[in-house]
Automatic annotation (TrEMBL):
Gene3D superfamilies: 3.30.70.20. It comes from the Archaea. Residues 172-200 form the 4Fe-4S ferredoxin-type domain. Pfam families: Fer4_7. This is 4Fe-4S ferredoxin iron-sulfur binding domain protein. One of its GO terms (molecular function) is oxidoreductase activity. InterPro entries: 4Fe4S_Fe-S-bd (IPR017896), 4Fe4S_Fe_S_CS (IPR017900).
């Protein structure tokens, strides 16, 4: 298959397997000066493309918060499991074409703390930035990806590959969603003041809250209150 055909086949398979979105960026976006995350090139030397897969989450997981934290956490895990299965099948398909593919660590939490470096709280790459550059959405004041179709209530997975796949155009969207300036609900609802109106996130406060105060359950309030969800 040509790179064109592989990309099309991957997209079709992802949707057949119940992904809600799939986007592809090339390695160059992680070299840009506005990117502050870890580089996936440090994991795969000959990286060419990053595939981002996503699913949206059911409304009930948010509407039952905060009492339904156990259910919310389990629903995030179910989304992550679904994405892992889809990513695994796509990775196998890529390798059948003679390329290499591996799936970046991700889990059911809003900011990916569980698999992140424990000091910096950063993952091997920013899935959100890769999706932003592929036009899936832009960022909210909650530091999550606000997808155009679903809002922030999504989970994502990432495949690293040396296959030079067809990529989307660079996003024309503003980096921060326009609606945020008139809203700030996520900042007001955060129980530990991890989010600020200056656009800073104190990840350590959020992680400490989920790791220790909630005993590993996820919080989700800064997603629940966002008016950009398509509930
Ligand atoms: S809750 Fe409001 S400020 Fe926060 S991300 Fe959503 S729209 Fe932006
Ligand atoms: S503590 Fe909760 S509301 Fe605050 S940033 Fe973390 S997940 Fe969002």
């Amino acid at each position: 298959m040509t790179e064109n055909n592989i990309t099309e086949t991957l997209r079709n398979l992802a949707f057949e397997l119940d992904a809600d979105f799939i986007s592809i960026t090339d390695k160059s976006c992680f070299e840009d000066s506005d990117y502050t995350g870890n580089k996936p090139q440090d994991v795969m030397d000959n990286l060419q493309s990053v595939i981002i897969l996503g699913v949206s989450l059911p409304r009930g997981a948010f509407e039952t918060l905060p009492k339904g934290r156990g259910e919310y956490t389990n629903t995030l895990m179910a989304a992550t499991t679904t994405l892992r299965v889809i990513a695994f099948k796509l990775a196998k398909l890529i390798e059948k074409e003679g390329y290499m593919a591996t799936i970046a660590p991700s889990e059911g939490s809003e900011y990916g703390y569980w698999y992140a470096d424990r000091e910096t709280l950063k993952a091997d790459l920013s899935f959100k930035y890769a999706a932003y550059r592929a036009g899936v959405g832009n960022f909210g004041m909650n530091h999550l990806l606000i997808t155009k179709d679903f809002g922030p209530k999504v989970r994502m997975a990432a495949i690293l590959t040396d296959a030079p796949l067809d990529t989307e155009e660079k996003a024309e969207l503003p980096f921060i969603n326009d609606a945020c300036s008139e809203c700030m609900k996520c900042i007001e609802v955060c129980p530990v003041d991890a989010l600020t109106s200056e656009g800073v996130i104190h990840k350590e406060k959020c992680a400490e809250y989920m790791f220790n105060v909630l005993g590993g359950l996820r919080c989700g309030l800064c997603i629940k209150v966002c008016p950009l969800n398509n509930f």
